[in-house]
Specification:
Order of helices and strands: HEEHHHHHHEHHEEHEEHHHEEE
CATH architecture: Orthogonal Bundle
CATH topology: Peroxidase, domain 1
Structural class: mainly alpha
Helix content: 25-40%
Shape: globular
Distance between the termini: 81 Å
Strand order of the largest sheet: 1-2
Radius of gyration: 23 Å
Number of domains: 1
Bound molecules: protoporphyrin IX containing FE, 2-acetamido-2-deoxy-beta-D-glucopyranose
Length: 357
């Protein structure tokens, strides 16, 4: 009897232990059939579909997806760990657009605010949830991007962010590092966040050449931005000779002064170089820094990351653009060898502008 009881007890304990070990992450099935970790996330699946259809032209990594990512940064960085610089990732850039769109650093942001506002109004989301969900979904349309996290439940913003929280391309590396540090980010995280410039183009740095991309592959979340910003160039204004812009040796491409300098500064150059052709490193570090950015100033949010679509993979390699090679690289990190890359065959080509800019 005692033995039977004991074996029952052992079986129970063993069974329970097995159950705990084998317990899958809790998932619930929404009324529409979608599966997520928390019932409050169910309402987001139709919003994701709405965004893809009405903002991102059917899940494209185009101008709107690029701008939605930029918008999320300009919204969130209105924050200081010392207080007094705005509510962070609160959607104030959408709700208080009258104020924030006047800031010089928000030049060009008006298009995506105008694009998002009517779609935002068809949802029940707060401005902050909308802006940061749109960024995660838009980024997921870019092959090679990580699946960004999304945390849900931001209250409506209380006030606009003050001016001068968003870095400008004319800012010194010292000033950029200082501003990011004030928002809680280390130099490595700045480099990680600037992976975003792999899906980017400028409209207002030089208004005579709208849609000018920062790398040769603005529709792919690859590591080309880290290669191309290191090609030989000068600090003198190039192309349209606008402030904040420096010469890119690649026709049709814009290089921001800030990217040029961060690529070469001793505090950031080694991670910049290490990102080249290391898709996994870029994805991991960009995802982690974005996870931090998208919840600045927020608390008590629910993890709804599983509503974010899985991005298509990028299976290519980083390359030197046609006619360029290792000789054209201004290596700024001496601690590690520059990665070995192939050159795209053929004659020099010009990078076409991003349509819709
Ligand atoms: C040192 C910090 C940064 C500076 C100085 C900077 C500056 C700029 C400038 C001047 C533009 C072009 C605007 C225009 O003329 O239309 C731009 C575009 C863009 N930026 Fe940044 N940026 C910084 C950091 C970031 C970060 C942290 C993100 C996101 C995580 C980001 C995402 C983007 C994207 C996606 C675009 C392209 C927008 C489009 O093509 O419509 N940037 N940035
Ligand atoms: C998931 O949500 C989308 C958007 O609302 C919907 O189109 C789809 O039918 C849902 N169900 C499944 C199983 O994906
Ligand atoms: C700015 O926000 C207001 C509401 O405060 C809205 O009516 C307007 O359409 C927004 N502007 C843009 C450009 O979307």
């Amino acid at each position: 009897m005692a033995f039977a009881q004991l074996s029952t007890l052992i079986a129970l304990v063993f069974g329970a232990a097995q159950f705990v070990a084998a317990a899958p992450p809790r998932k619930i099935r929404c009324a529409d059939g979608n599966v997520t970790s928390n019932a409050v996330c169910c309402q987001l699946f139709p919003v994701v579909a709405n965004l893809q259809e009405n903002l991102f032209d059917g899940a494209q990594c185009g101008e709107e997806a690029h701008s939605a990512l930029r918008l999320s940064f300009h919204d969130a960085i209105g924050f200081s760990i010392h207080g007094g610089k705005g509510g962070g990732a609160d959607g104030s850039i959408l709700a208080f657009n009258d104020t924030e769109l006047q800031f010089h650093a928000n030049g060009g942001i008006d298009d995506i605010v105008a694009g998002q506002f009517p779609v935002f109004q068809t949802t029940n989301l707060s401005p902050g949830d909308f802006v940061h969900l749109a960024a995660a979904v838009g980024t997921a349309n870019c092959p090679g991007a990580p699946q960004l996290e999304f945390f849900f439940g931001r209250p409506p913003p209380k006030a606009p962010a003050p001016d001068l929280t968003v870095p400008e391309p004319t800012d010194s590396v010292d000033a950029i590092i200082e501003r990011f540090a004030d928002a809680g980010f280390a130099p490595d995280e700045i480099v990680a966040l600037l992976s975003s410039h792999t899906v980017a183009a400028a409209d207002v740095v030089d208004v005579t050449i709208p849609g000018t991309p920062f790398d040769s592959t603005p529709f792919t979340f690859d590591t080309q931005i880290f290669v191309e910003t290191l090609l030989v160039g000068t600090l003198f204004p190039g192309n349209g000779s606008q402030s904040g812009e420096v010469l890119s040796p690649i026709p049709g491409e814009m290089r921001l002064q800030s990217d040029f300098e961060l690529a070469r500064d001793p505090r950031t150059a080694c991670l910049w170089q290490a990102m080249i052709n290391d898709q996994t490193r870029m994805q991991t570090q960009f995802k982690a820094a974005m996870a931090k950015l998208e919840v600045l100033g927020q608390r008590n949010l629910v993890d709804c990351s599983d509503v974010v679509p899985v991005p298509p993979p990028f299976r290519g390699q980083a390359m030197f653009p046609a006619t360029f090679s290792r000789r054209d690289i201004q290596q700024a990190c001496q601690a590690t060898p520059f990665p070995t890359l192939e050159t795209i065959p053929g004659p020099e080509t010009s990078v076409p502008p991003v349509p819709g800019s």
